[in-house]
Amino acid sequence: MSAQFLLVDHLTRFCPAAPDPPPAWGAPPPVKPDPWPHPFPDEPINWLGDGFKIVWIDPREPYWHPRMAAARPPDLPDSWVRPTDYRDGTVHYRIEVFEKPNSTQPVTLLSRLTSDVHHGTHNIWLGHGVCVFKTTGVHYFSQPVSAHRPFTKDSKFNWDRPVYELQLVVSDLRGACVHRSVEQAHNAYDGAPNLTFYLPLKVRYSAVVTAPGATLAKPTWW
Predict the structure, then answer these.
(1) Residue 208 has pLDDT above 90, yes or no
(2) CATH for the 4-15+51-210 domain, from 1.25.40, 2.60.120, 1.10.10, 3.30.750
(3) Given Cys at both, which of 1, 6, 131, 136 links 73, Cβ 3.0 to 4.6 Å?
(4) Which pTM does this prediction carry?
C-alpha cells in the first residue's frame, strides 16, 4: 500500500488573453485546434473568458480524450479515504518558474480539484493549493490537503470518487484571477489592467500527496 501519489506534474505557459478577430460575414467558424497535443505543452493559454487550464479528466468520463491519458498521473487513487487516508495528509508542491515578468509583484498559483462536472458552481471544488512566488527558479511548499483554502470550506468535493479534473489559475494575493474577464471587470487584480505584472508566466507545476505521518519520498527530478 503506497503512502503517497503524484497528483500533477504539468508544464504550462500563461500569456495575456486576447479576443479572436471577428469572422468575415458568411465565413464558417474557425477550426479550433486539438487542445491536448502532449503531456507537457509549451504553448500559451490564451482564453479571454475563464483562463483556467484543465490539466486532465478521468478516463471514465464522457468528455475524456485519449490524448489526455499522457497528462494524467497513472497512480491517482479512486478514493482519497480508502484504503489509504490521503484526505488528512499533506500535499507537497514543487513550482519551477522558467519565465516571469521582471517585477517584484508576488504571483499566486491557485489550483483546485473537482470530483464531478462543475457547471459553474464553486462548492464542489477542493481548493488544495496556494503557492506564492516573486522570482524564477524552483520553489517548494507543503500544505495540509484539507486546510480551509479557497473553495475548500463547505465544499461538496466527494473524497470517495476519482478526481474529475484539475485547474490552475494565476491570481494576485487576494485571489482575484488575472485571466478571468469577469474578475477584471468586477474584482480587478492588483495592477489591473496591466497584465505585465503577472504574464507571461511559464511554470512546471508538480504536487505529491502523502498520507498522514508519511515522509515525502522525493522523485529523482524533484
Answers:
(1) yes
(2) 2.60.120
(3) 6
(4) 0.81
